[in-house]
Each structure stands twice: as C-alpha cells, then as structure tokens.
Amino acid sequence: MEFKTIKVLIERTNPRRGELFRLGMALLFIIAIMFVCYTKFAIYQNGTILVIAAMIGGYMGLNIGANDVANNVGPAVGSKAISLTGAILIAAICEASGALVAGGDVVSTIKKEIIDSSLITDANTFIWIMMSALLAAAIWLNLATAIGAPVSTTHSIVGGVLGAGVAAAGWGIANWPQVGAIIASWVISPIMGGIIAAAFLLLIKKRIIYQSDMVKSARVLVPILISAMVWAFVTYLILKGLNKIWQIDILSATVIGFVFALAIYFIVKQIILHTSKKMGQDRERINKLFTIPLVFAAALLSFAHGANDVANAVGPLAAINDAVIHGGVVTKAEIPLWVMMVGAIGIVMGLALYGPKLIHTVGSEITKLDKIRAFCVAMAAAVTVILASQLGLPVSSTHIAVGGVFGVGFLREYLEANQSQALDEIRNHYIEEKDDEVGKFLDEFNESDFYHKGQLLMDLKKKLGTKLYKKDKKKLRKVYRTELVKRSILVKIVAAWLVTVPSSGGLAAVLYFILHIIFLK
Q: How far apart are the first and last CA of the chain?
C-alpha cells in the first residue's frame, strides 16, 4: 500500500493522530540534538548557549524543509510526473547530498552583508544577534507554512539579522542600499520567473501544440528543449550548487553545460524518434515526453537548493559555534560536520513531515499544471537564477518558482480568452448560415496550425467588414476570460512576501531585547 494511502487512512480514522505524529517526530529530532550537543559541548564555558543554538538550528532546518523545498518538487508533483512519495524521497536524498557534498566549509555569518559587523565588538552581543535572527526566521517560516504560503528562506533570515542588528546597535548598523536591493527582488524575482516560464510555454504551444502535425513538430523541438534544460541546469548546478567546492567563471560553466547538452541532444533525439512512431496526434501523449526531464529537474533543483540554502539554517549556528569556542566576532565561520548534519537532517525531516502541504499549494492550488507547464516552470527557475546572478540582481528561488507557476496560469487565461473570442466571432459571422457550414469552418479552424488559424481569422474579418478597436477587444476578453489562477492564493502569497522581512525583523528585535534583559543585565 502506498505511503499516501496509509497517511489518508490514518488521518480519516483519527484526524489529530497524523498531526500529533508529525509534532512528536519533530520534537524527538530537536531533543536528540540537545542530548548529542550537550555531551559534546558541556565542557565549554558557554556550552549551554551552543546547545540551545543547535536546537534552534534544527528547528530552522525543519521549517526550511517544510516550506522552501516545495518550490523544487511542487510542479513535478502537481503535473503527476512523479508521486508525492517519490518526490519526497528524491528531494530528501538530493537536498541532503547537496548540503553535505557541496555545502562548503565556510559560510558568511552576516547574510548578504546587510549589517556592518565592525560595529559589533562584544562576542556575547554577536551571539544573541545570531540566535535571535535564527529563531525569528524559523518562527516566521513556521507561521507561513501553517497558512500555506511559500516564502523566501533567505529573506526570512535577512530580516532576522537586520532586526536583531538594529536592536543591538541602532539604525546605523544597517546597509540600507543592500536592504533596498532585497526589497526590489520582491518584484524582480516573480516577474522574471513568470515571464520566462510563460515564454517557454508559448513557444511550446506555437511550435508543437498548435501545429497540425504535433508529433512531427515534437520530434524537432522536444530534443532541443530538453537539451536547453540540460544546458541551463548544468550551468546552474556548477555556478550555484558547486560554487562552494569548485570556483569557476560563467563562461567556463556555460561551455561545460553546452557539452553536456550536445551529448544529451543526440541521445534524446533518437529516443523521441523511436517513441513517437507509436504516438497519435494527442496532446496528452506529447505531454508525457516531458516526464523524465521533470524528474531530473526536481532532483537537480533540490541538490542546488541543499548546497546553497542549508547556509540559511546553519550559517548563524556556525557563527555561534565559532564565537563560543574561539571567542570574538567573525564575518566568516567554518562549518563543522555536526553543524551541517543538523541543517541537512532538519531539512529532510521537515520536508517529509510538513512538506506535502506546500507541495500541494505550489503544484495544484495556484493553477492546474500538466507536465509541459511544469517543465516551463523548472526552466524558468534555472534560467532566471543564472541571468540574475550574472546581472547582480538579488533574486529568490522561491519567488522565481512561484512566479513561474503564476506566469503559465495567466498565459493560459489569456490564450483561452482569445480562443473563446475567436470561436464566438466565427459563430456570429455564420449566424445565418447552415449548421454544417459553421461546423465545417470550425473543424478547419481547430485542425489548423497556429499560423493558418491566424490567416483564417484575418480572411473572416475581411469578409465581415468590421473592425474591433483595442478597447473593444479588451472588453470581449473580460467576457470570455475563465479564471485559471486562484486569486485568493495570489493575494495570500503576495501578502506573505511583502511582510517577510518586516515580520522576521520585528520578531528578531523583540527576541534580542528579551535575551538582553535575561542574560546581559
């Protein structure tokens, strides 16, 4: 019996049992961290502080797994390219591998350099700033997961460090231009992701789906698209996933990616040629060609995410570890294996216990995703991060992926509105004709490729002798528009994005003042 079925049976038998089980496993993980760290660090003067920080780091890891990882596997699950259980297993393995293999030996203690560490001279003050930031970010991620809103882990920890830093040393400690760049990324990330995902979807529709011979078109374009995906993902993986252990420039990474893509092109071309011989002119069959690429995309995104974003969980913990053991304030801290293990295991457990909720939100609730649409979202995630990193734009992988989902959803709304409008114009033109004449034209219209459809509509408008102005077309699209993107989900996610930095920052400031009163006075 599949894991998902067992889970459903348990929760239907006793709705609270599943929640209690998840909570119990999460608590056991944090308690295990406490016991292991206590035996290791009790000998140090501030050993107890380090134990508490490790527990908070584990809590942060749980919340990263519950919230952020959904962006990597959500579209693949929503499109049914892979089951929920399979997605969790793949993401867990790849996230942990990325964290442990390519997570790096050193991490920046002041994420994105948003505060001036030179203004923090006391080691204890630095420890409380890091601890407050870590706990505030974890609590905010927990709240966002509870309401079903995918938010940026990086923005959460940035807000935490900013809030605690300002509470400790005043407004002058903040690097406001950098904060402004992060705020700008709230707009840049989803817009870039949405535009790129929609562009790929429009390309596939025009060159394959809207063609009279879809199979022939697929034989040409699908190998190119999959090769482009390999190129983008290999480059992405080298630049973002392996940058901690292998420093390489963008040109070299691009060349390596191209070599891989070229090899894959010839392999995929033969596979598609063989597979397509048995295919009919059916969109669903074309859709299935993207199944395996989607699985690999989810795996590669998860590996890169584990390599990069594990620092959000263990960065402040590594800084506290260094400050407790060696004393002083450091801008770069070594990441001991035990610290990396806390983050990696926490992410995996958070994904397994609480990840399905956000996976469902990203993969199914925003808009309906098939394999082609999910492929476009995955492509947007890789391409956008590469472009943004080279342009020096601070973008969020969460915002990019979710923006990509919204992008394909809104494009579907636009195209369906245009299709409905075109069909209605055809029926109105033939309103006095016999039904078989209308049917004949509609059959020809539906079976035509993209360009022939446009020509048919142009000829029809010439016969009709009327002209629709832009404002008239806009009114007609509103009439025919079917909402394929849930507006309530859109509003909830955008609201959560806007308050992430202020919320985690404000909470971190409050926590810092509490710790200051308890321990420093």
A: 58
